[in-house]
Amino acid sequence: MRRNRIAVVLGCLLCAAWCSAQGQAGMKSLVEMTVPADGGWQKAYLLPFDASPRAIDSAEVRNGQCRLTLPATPQPQGYGIMVRAGGKQLTAGVFNDCQRQTLTWRADQAGYECSGSVLGSRLVAYRQAETQFGRSAAALQQQAANPGATEAGRRQAQAQLDSLAEGMKTLIMAALRQNMENPLGLFLMQENAYWIEPATVMELLEKVPSPYRSHPAYTEVHDQVQALLRTQVGQPYTDLQMKTPEGRALRISDLVGRQELLLVDFWASWCGPCMGEVPNLVQLYKDCHGKGLEIIGVSLDNRADAWRNALEKHHMTWPQMSDLKGWESQACQAYSITGIPATVLIGKDGKIVARDLRGTELRRKIEELLGMK
Fold first, then answer.
1. Percent of the chain scored above 70 by pLDDT?
2. CA distances for 195 relative to 130, 141, 172, 227, 285, angstroms
3. Domain range 241-369, CATH architecture
4. Which residues fall within 8 angstroms of residue 136, CB to CB, at 6 or more apart?
5. DSSP symbol at 168
6. Which of 150, 178, 277, 287 sees the fewest Cβ atoms within 10 Å?
């Protein structure tokens, strides 16, 4: 399960380069919006691109029409727009690269068009490509999972799905390489850095002009990749100290070296995939604890009661700790955790021997290192 962000982070150029934003100023830009008049839309909000819920500005929607103004900035910047009606919302990404632009949502609310903004228009093009990818991927996943399909049919569907995913990655990488000198490339990097090789990310970040290096998107990606490089296989582990469910201080260093292997499991009670992995960990602990394996759970929970209840309900009897800060946990920065479940396997000498294994791959690696095979 990955961190959720404002929809604007999906913005990018497709494969056509846009001239460098370096040296250009972000203009005060009027955004005129048209939403489906029968949707009951009430209010539009202008949001910063930092995953913050605070609104910079807001305006009432009247007869399907609304206006917001983007502020002038030293360089062009990206913003999110959210239009709400009760529990419903429409989202868009906008840039202050022009004096006036329009957003028009389709009647089915499945997308919108942008005119006036070069960056905004190309963001829309990317969104359309992403939507088509999602639809094609969903259809292939259904084919691969169809109980009535032949084995050959499932393999073919899976091969097509893999090819489709690689094509999307190629598209994203091309956009990144052509646009790291403007805000679109930087925003796209923030969304995709987790699956790109750290060395490639650092190479791309070198292309970011100095005015954008103080942007939160640049800082977040840079710090995450630096943490990932520090915690790659072969590197010494990074120590963490948090509280146990009983309120005692516990450090990773308290457990390193006591057994042949220490598995650090990053999880949360609210994370479905994490809880789906718990039975595997319970069995792994039962089978391997007496043969040289220790586990320490590092929870990204926010609520102590939910954390403790999950431990008791699912019989997670190995050492546990948390600072109850969710995605703001020190663990996320220290180990570049952008999605959970995540694992780090530490040897008796304190060096990392594996990362991000789960299920059968994790068991196979642990049994191999413990000489159980």
1. 92
2. 17, 21, 11, 15, 29
3. 3-Layer(aba) Sandwich (3.40)
4. 164
5. H
6. 150
Q: Tell me the three state secondary structure of residue 25.
A: coil
What does the DSSP assignment read for 46-110? EEESSS----SEEEE-BTTEEEEEEPPBSS--EEEEEEEETTEEEEEEEESSSSEEEEEE-TTSS
Phi/psi for 285 (5° steps) reads -65, -40
Q: SS3 for 328?
A: helix
User: Could you give the CA distance from residue 9 to residue 179 in angstroms, rounded to a whole number?
Assistant: 14
Q: Positive or negative CA dihedral for 340, 345, 350, 351?
A: negative
Residue 326 pLDDT exceeds 70: yes
What is the C-alpha separation between 373 and 369, in angstroms, rounded? Answer: 9
Spatial separation of the C-alpha atoms in residues 293 and 105, rounded to whole Å: 55
Asked if residues 58 and 43 have their Cβ atoms less than 8 Å apart, the reply is: yes
Residue whose tokens read 């391997």: 288
Backbone angles phi, psi at 330, to 5 degrees: -60, -25
For residues 112-123, b (16+ Cβ closer than 10 Å) or e, as one string? bebebbbbbebb
